[in-house]
Write a structure and sequence with these properties.
Blueprint: H1 2-9, H2 14-21, E1 26-27, E2 33-34, H3 58-85, H4 87-93, E3 95-103, E4 113-116, E5 122-124, E6 130-137, E7 139-147, E8 150-158, E9 163-170
Parallel strand pairs: 3-9
Antiparallel strand pairs: 1-2, 3-6, 4-5, 4-7, 7-8
Helix pairs in contact: 1-2
Length: 181
């Protein structure tokens, strides 16, 4: 009863004072209801009305967490993709060896340059046309054989710790180097 009288004396509408008396939640000035058990104590009002509550930042916090989460997921995804495409990932997966022989159209061995695309791995054939590429990252790789303006790309599946023989590769030499425009 005392709460209802004090509430009415403080300028609350009579309806709210009666609601407080009956322990029914009374809407505040913003129209928000508050249960009696959650209502502030009278000790708060001993020195006058309290200052305005701080602004509600829960909506801003939610958006901030959403933005942080999206940025974190994007960063992790980009890091995984970048790592998967790097040679460091290939080193973790393992390496293998690719061997083969390069011959001309008459099946005679030729001296050619062989390299693995997107790596620094390269080799030259010996006088018998045989080559060996060591330390090739495991997985799908593209081996390029180049000789006097002619070239050929051979897809190879390299198995970690294994030797893959791609056999004889036949190249045809051209009179003039072919230039890509």
């Amino acid at each position: 009863m005392l709460m209802a009288v004090l509430a009415f004396a403080r300028g609350m509408p009579r309806k709210c004072a009666l609601m407080i008396y009956r322990s029914i939640p009374c809407p505040d000035e913003r129209g928000v209801s508050m249960a009696y058990e959650q209502s502030p104590s009278l000790k708060i009002y001993e020195e006058g009305l309290p200052s305005a509550p701080p602004p509600d930042t829960s909506a801003r916090r939610k958006w901030l967490w959403v933005i942080i989460t999206v940025l974190a997921v994007t960063t992790v995804a980009l890091s995984v993709v970048t790592f998967a495409r790097s040679t460091a990932a290939a080193l973790l997966v393992g390496t293998g060896t690719v061997t083969g022989k390069v011959v001309d159209e008459a099946d005679q061995p030729i001296t050619a340059e062989i390299f693995v695309l997107h790596t620094n791995i390269e080799a030259r054939t010996n006088s018998d046309g045989i080559f060996e590429l060591r330390g090739v990252p495991a997985g799908q790789q593209a081996i390029v054989v180049a000789y006097q303006g002619a070239g050929r790309e051979i897809p190879v599946t390299v198995i970690a710790g294994a030797r893959v023989d791609i056999g004889a590769i036949q190249l045809t030499a051209t009179a003039f180097p072919i230039m890509d425009q």
